[in-house]
C-alpha cells in the first residue's frame, strides 16, 4: 500500500513537471504570437488610415481640377478674344458642375481625414469664390476665380504632401 502510494506520488510529480514544462513553453510562444499580431494589426490600421487620407486629398484635388478647367478655358478664350465652341463649353460646364458636387462631397466626407490646414484652406477658397462672384466685371470675375482655383489647388497639393509625409 505504501509502495502504491509512493508510485502515485512519483507519477504526480512527473505530471507536475510535465505541466510546468508545458506552461513555461507555452507562455513565451503565446506572448510572441500576441505581440506579432498586435504589431501587424497596428501597422494594418495605420496603412489603411494613410490610404484613406490620401484618397480624401486626391478627391479634393481632383474636384478642384475638374472645376478649374472651366475657368482656365474661359480665361484663356477671353484673353485671346475668342469664343469657346458650344460642344467644349457644354463639356466644361458638365465638368465644372461635377467637380463642384465632388468638391462638396469630398469636403464633407473627407473632413474626417483632412488636416485642419486643409479644411481651413478650403474655407478660405470658398470665401475667395464668394468674393469673386461679387465683382461687377466678368473679366475680373474670371481672373479672380481662376486665381482662387489655381492657388487652392497648389496649396492643397503642398498640404497633402506635408500631411501624408511625401516629399
TrEMBL record:
Keywords: Membrane, Transmembrane, Transmembrane helix. The chain crosses the membrane at residues 18-41. This is DUF4760 domain-containing protein.
